[in-house]
Amino acid sequence: MSAFDELMAFQRETEALAQVEGRLHWDQETMMPRGSALQRGEELAALSAVLHARRVDPRVGEWLDRAEAPDEAGAAQLRLIRRSHERATRVPARLASEMARVTSLSQGIWAEARAKDDFAAFAPTLSDVVKLTRELADCLADGRDPYDALLDEYEPGATGESLSQMFGALRPRLVALRDRVMGSDRRPEALEGTFAEAGQLALSRELAEVFGYDFHRGRIDKAVHPFSSGSGADVRITMRTAADDPFNCFYSTIHEVGHAAYEQGIDDAYHLSPLGQGVSMGVHESQSRIYENQLGRSRAFTGFLFERMRDTFGEMSVTDVDAFFACVNRVTPGYIRTESDEVQYNLHILMRFDLERDLVSGKLAVADLEEAWNARFEQDFGRKVDRASNGCLQDVHWSLGLFGYFPTYTLGNVYAGCLHKALREAEPELDAALARGDTSPATGWLHRNLQRFGGLRAPRETVRHACGFEPSEEPLLEYLEQKFGAIYGV
Hints:
Keywords: Carboxypeptidase, Hydrolase, Metal-binding, Metalloprotease, Protease, Zinc
Protein name: Metal-dependent carboxypeptidase
Distance between the termini: 65 Å
Number of strands: 3
GO biological process, one term: proteolysis
CATH architecture of the largest domain: Orthogonal Bundle
Number of domains: 2
Shape: globular
GO molecular function, one term: metallocarboxypeptidase activity
Largest sheet: 3 strands, mixed
Helix content: 55-70%
Order of helices and strands: HHHHHHHHHEEEHHHHHHHHHHH
CATH topology of the largest domain: Neurolysin, domain 3
Structural class: mainly alpha
């Protein structure tokens, strides 16, 4: 075997073990008995130690020195393995194992604290996570800003400074649009009533199929926080239900199907290799957001959803398709990021971006986080936070040590705006298909131009290759201003 072949065989086993680790996390959030948390923490710590040992194995470095790429895909494989190896060798095995153990336990503690609206019960554990995260960032920084080192795990090539500039360009127009919308005399009606869980689950499954989810290689389960897990031949998603809010179920399903479709759509030849997964969280989020928003909340598709909901639940409080479209896209005051409308969603992310940078740098102490969150939320959204579960306990990410992850949500929205612009130019009859519940012109275009390539190209290059132009925030802002300007007459 050549050095390249030996390296790829070794890497395939590493990728398979990483999939097992992901399955343990999936089980923890869906089916694991509550009393199993301590043992699961030990299991994840042990597996993390095994994976870390493989990633820093000296043979990887030797193979990389001798390997010759047979083609473009092989060169990309070597680039990604080298990046992973270099990052892993900077992290002590003790730290990798302890991070896995503590974040596994932290997740359960967060969930209980959130249920009780008790930030104080979570703060000591979060302090441990932040301490380990700072240590990890220092190991990875190599002279850079420690936050950039964390961000690089989720969005290679991005920096806190470059994102600050992009977010600075987004904020004024988002705030101005929100103010115009909130000041409008138009008030789309809310959907009222109770919607049986059985009907929600059945329609959720149908929507997953409509958007191309392959149930032969996946499944849907319920979880506190919807997510997608896995790649290749085993990609699972979760959603949640609320009797008085079926949109929460339906659009979280469509959102997670966007993630899953990316993973299921990657070229089979890349499975269990560095190319066999989404290239970054920003690009990943572009898929979930374009599925959920530009497609799922479009006037054309909401007409189809309106009829399917009437078929499932009977007559509803909203009685015509135009009112239903406005209802789906209502802009309302609220606390929860995952339930936020498109106009305000990114403002939630911009707030978290600033707070977590301060946590990592030490400018903000965990003990002061709740107060800082509440003050910033009131400043940005004009409302006082009423309880911790509507405030700094609403998201699971920090309990898992996912610092540097939040900004990729807005970056994903920016990428989705670019992809939507290119998609509309390529598929001028798209709305006619969406109105029939046929998403294939859109999902097919995304598969051909982005999803099948997996990690072949760098994140921005992936989007640029699909769109044919350099990514920027302008297409997203134009889409939002046109869509919500029309709904609200502003």
